[in-house]
């Protein structure tokens, strides 16, 4: 299944994508689930396909898509998780995952503009695989970790590089408003049983700037889930953004920054294409 969060007349909703239409599930789960996060938390994901059969249809093109999970309890990002990216940054591989947080207000949905902040021109792309938790867990065993996954999406973890480097802590450059894109939809884990078999490609104005396969992650998805869940409980709707490969704009010569008028795309096999124009902050 491909599930989206959207905004239309009457407010926010969620639904199941069927071709160029969306089966609007908002009413079918009213009182039981508010949004996709609520659907996951209530354990109703398997009911979504059945409910879609009788749900009203909306044209997909007429909807303003929101981040896949607009209101996650937490967004945990992974830094330096591909060796070619570690090499281009001049850093050394860490024995455990390098983690930092983003906030929900830093995200936009598919088709919505990424916002270059007015305090910087060093706005960089980072194509990544996003993992959405479906079943809560604490101290999850690595061998059981994928059973906790609801599904996967594309993520552009836009980074404001000069602010990121103000200190050794990444957060300042990683969570500016409107700098991260999350979408276009959640593809449920039954369609992607092994997240290490995917191909990821990032394009800027049609030019391929990053390309990798997810088996090249230093710390794979099961180990990330086990490690993070040891620190704090993972909840339905939580998002793990699993790291970007080499080819980021900051390490090119000359650097390649996202600028107003550009179009950034992240494509992951089995999921689709996350596409966002870039605008300047007002």
State the distance separating the first and last CA atoms: 37 Å
Q: What proportion strand?
A: 35-45%
Average pLDDT confidence is 97
Instruction: State the CATH topology of the largest domain.
Output: Fumarylacetoacetate hydrolase, domain 2
InterPro entries: FAH, Fumarylacetoacetase-like_C, Fumarylacetoacetase_C_sf, Rv2993c-like_N
GO molecular function: hydrolase activity; metal ion binding
Family: Belongs to the FAH family.
Pfam families: FAA_hydrolase, Rv2993c-like_N
Key words describing this protein structure:
282 residues; mainly beta; Fumarylacetoacetate hydrolase, domain 2; 2 domains; twelve-stranded mixed beta sheet; five-stranded mixed beta sheet; 19 strands; 35% strand; globular
What does this protein look like?
The chain is mostly beta strands. It folds into 2 domains: about 1-65, no CATH class; about 75-280, Alpha-Beta Complex (Fumarylacetoacetate hydrolase, domain 2). The protein is about 15% helix and about 35% strand. It is built from 6 helices and 19 strands. The protein has helices at about 35-40, 45-50, 85-90, 160-165, 170-175, 220-230; strands spanning about 1-10, 10-20, 20-25, 55-60, 65, 75-80, 100, 105-110, 115, 125, 125-135, 150-155, 160, 180-190, 200-205, 205-215, 240, 265-270, 270-280. Strands 1, 2, 3, 4, 5, 6, 7, 8, 11, 12, 14 and 17 form a 12-stranded mixed beta sheet that branches. Strand 15 and strand 16 (about 205-215) form a beta hairpin. The longest helix has 11 residues, at about 220-230. The N and C termini lie far apart (about 35 Å).
């Amino acid at each position: 299944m491909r599930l989206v969060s959207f905004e239309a007349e009457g407010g926010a909703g969620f639904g199941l994508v069927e071709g160029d239409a969306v089966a609007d599930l908002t009413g079918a789960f009213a009182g039981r689930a508010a949004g996709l996060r609520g659907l996951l938390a209530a354990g109703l994901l398997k009911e979504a396909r059945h409910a879609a059969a009788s749900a009203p249809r909306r044209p997909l093109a007429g909807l303003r898509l929101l981040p896949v999970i607009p209101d996650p309890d937490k967004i945990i990002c992974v830094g330096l998780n591909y060796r070619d990216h570690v090499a281009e940054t001049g850093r050394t591989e860490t024995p455990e995952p390098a983690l930092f947080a983003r906030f929900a207000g830093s995200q936009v949905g598919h088709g919505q503009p990424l916002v270059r902040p007015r305090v910087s021109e060093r706005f960089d792309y980072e194509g990544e695989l996003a993992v959405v938790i479906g079943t809560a867990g604490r101290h999850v065993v690595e061998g059981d970790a994928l059973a906790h996954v609801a599904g996967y999406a594309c993520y552009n973890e836009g980074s404001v590089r000069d602010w990121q480097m103000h200190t050794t802590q990444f957060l300042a450059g990683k969570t500016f408003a409107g700098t991260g894109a999350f979408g276009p939809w959640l593809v449920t884990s039954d369609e992607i049983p092994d997240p290490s078999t995917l191909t990821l490609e990032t394009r800027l104005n049609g030019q391929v700037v990053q390309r990798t396969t997810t088996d090249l992650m230093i710390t794979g998805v099961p180990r990330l889930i086990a490690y993070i869940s040891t620190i704090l409980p993972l909840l339905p709707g939580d998002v793990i953004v699993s790291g970007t490969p080499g080819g980021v704009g900051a390490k090119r010569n000359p650097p390649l920054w996202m600028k107003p008028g550009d179009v950034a795309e992240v494509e992951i096999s089995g999921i689709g294409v996350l596409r966002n124009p870039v605008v300047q902050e007002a």
